[in-house]
Specification:
Length: 127
């Protein structure tokens, strides 16, 4: 029971938050931005169900990383380090691939910081 309460529940709860945050940001608020950007590149923005499932897996893996990081660091340090690992490194990769719409970072940076902070908060509170 302690494993569920101290490990599985915090990770699962953070995964749900991250998934909802990602969905709202990329499929509701900024979907048109992504679709237009990808269209200008001559490619289609990937939003098939399999892509959603992979983002669900990413959310779980991000929550696990936050959980592990939270064992060694304070809330703020966990949130910042998690944000760096989860988002900054991803932006470097998709920027290198030439598919990052740099203009979206004005919105993505603060929203992703909030996402990482709330996920870290959930994990810290529940574990």
């Amino acid at each position: 029971m302690n494993v569920f309460k101290n490990t599985i529940l915090p990770i699962f709860s953070a995964t749900i938050w991250i998934s909802l945050s990602e969905f709202a940001r990329n499929e509701v608020w900024f979907k048109t931005y992504w679709v237009d950007h990808y269209g200008k590149l001559g490619i289609v923005f990937p939003s098939e169900p399999i892509n959603g499932a992979i983002w669900g897996l990413w959310s779980l893996l991000f929550a696990i990383a936050i959980f592990i990081i939270s064992k060694k660091f304070s809330l703020l340090n966990t949130a910042f380090l998690s944000w760096f690992v989860g988002f900054v490194l991803m932006w470097v990769v998709i920027g290198n691939l030439g598919v990052l719409p740099y203009g979206i970072l004005v919105f993505a940076v603060p929203l992703s910081l909030l996402e990482a902070f709330i996920a870290a908060f959930i994990i810290k509170k529940l574990s």
